[in-house]
Amino acid sequence: MSLISATEVITAAYVTEIDPAMIKEEIILTAELKYIKPVLTATLYDDIVSNPGSYSTLIVTYVKPCLAFFVKASMLNQQLLETAQYTPGSDPSLSPSFIDITTAVLIPPAHRRDTLKEVLAIAFAKQALLQEYVIAQAYPFYATPVSKRVSGFRIVSSTI
């Protein structure tokens, strides 16, 4: 079970309404493990998943908004290519017509790239706020990530 639902992702990260079924649990969980767990560190993350009620401010104010934008970024290109049945609202019967798949595919690559960059910029800004908050709270299960340079590359120790 992830820390955010598909409906919460849509509420936090989307301007237009989309069908929550488009956001698969596996995409949410993958984004959570890739972008949230390393910031929280494994021990704190595991405690949050086990005891979410003890971390309600952290989850609602910092984790969910951050995770929502990483989920959106993770599925953006797929969403643009798989939306043959996308409608302006959640009820297809209310839409006068479906958008044809060729319309979705013909979005210029530069536009897709720029959109993804904007979504990721928001996600990384929210991730920085999450990290600042976690450090300021001095949670007992939080362990400061260790990094070192090897041949000019920064290596971050991860306990995922």
- What's the shape? globular
Rounded radius of gyration (Å) = 18 Å
The largest beta-sheet arranges its strands as 1-2
The helix-strand sequence is: HHHHHHEE
Which class do the helix and strand fractions yield?
A: mainly alpha
The proportion of residues forming helix, as a percent range, comes to: 55-70%
The total strand number stands at: 2
Tally of helical segments: 6
Terminal-residue CA separation: 17 Å
Average pLDDT, all residues: 84
Largest sheet descriptor = 2 strands, antiparallel
Question: What share of residues are in beta strands?
Answer: 5-15%
Low-confidence stretches: none
Overview of this structure, please?
It contains 6 helices and 2 strands. It is 58% helix and 5% strand. α2 crosses α4. Strands 1-2 form a two-stranded antiparallel sheet. It is globular, with a radius of gyration of 18 Å. The model has no long low-confidence stretch (mean pLDDT 84).
Fill in the keyword field for this structure:
single chain; 160 residues; mainly alpha; two-stranded antiparallel sheet; 6 helices; 5% strand; globular
Brief write-up:
The protein has six helices and two strands, in the order ααααααββ. The protein has helices at 6-13, 25-40, 42-50, 56-81, 101-105, 109-137; strands at 147-150, 153-156.
Write the layout of secondary structure elements.
Layout lengths: L5 H8 L11 H16 L1 H9 L5 H26 L19 H5 L3 H29 L9 E4 L2 E4 L4
Antiparallel strand pairs: 1-2
